[in-house]
Design brief:
With about 190 residues, the chain is of the alpha+beta class. It has three helices and 13 strands; from the N terminus they run αββββββββββαββαβ. It has one domain. It is globular, with a radius of gyration of 16 Å.
């Protein structure tokens, strides 16, 4: 049951941009972006508690221009699209995701495009993800290493420059991310 809740929480974060650490500036730019041939395809959420795939929860990743990817996240009939760029950090990847549209379709207002950061691991047909540690813990880590951030309406928004973000995550990425908690399995073609 706890795993199912974590899985739903991960998708909720992606689809609603909830209260967690986000970045105003990109982490991944042209100087550090990379491609990984294992990433494109359709990934189906795997519920390890019940040992079943959740076909109503998918990520479809396709290559796009400028060494980026297009991520279409679907959950229970709702779909969000992201531009995804990745960088290599030690033995894992860091994904920098930003919604593809800057207009909030529900309210028809302009919104600030913030970057969501995830740690990725791709092995044996599995894509595992980890989010940043909880905001309060992240704030403590950021203060300790002088990484600029602001708190707006209870949300932690990193305001550091792209260069400062890269330096921080390459040096302290292990401490900044939680353990891998969500698993996707590659969908059969």
């Amino acid at each position: 049951m706890q795993t199912s809740l974590r899985i739903t929480a991960c998708f909720s974060i992606l689809l609603t941009s909830g209260c967690f650490v986000q970045s105003l500036n990109p982490l991944v730019d042209d100087t550090v972006t990379c491609r990984d041939a294992r990433l494109p395809g359709t990934w189906v959420l795997f519920d390890d508690v019940f040992d079943i795939s959740r076909k109503d929860h998918t990520w479809t990743i396709t290559e796009a221009a400028d060494d980026s990817y297009r991520l279409t996240a679907s959950m229970d009939g709702k779909t969000s699209e992201y531009t995804l760029r990745i960088m290599k950090a030690r033995d894992y990847l860091i994904a920098d995701m930003v919604k593809s549209h800057s207009i909030d379709e529900e309210f028809r207002i302009n919104s600030v495009r913030v970057h969501q950061l995830l740690k990725l691991s791709i092995e044996k047909g599995e894509l595992r993800t980890a989010s940043l540690i909880p905001a309060r813990n992240f704030q403590s880590l950021a203060r300790k290493h002088h990484l600029a951030y602001s708190t707006v309406d209870g949300r932690t928004i990193l305001t550091a420059s792209t260069g400062d973000l890269q330096e921080f995550f390459l040096e302290h990425g292990e401490a900044a991310f939680a353990d891998f908690s969500t698993t996707f399995k590659r969908s059969a073609p």
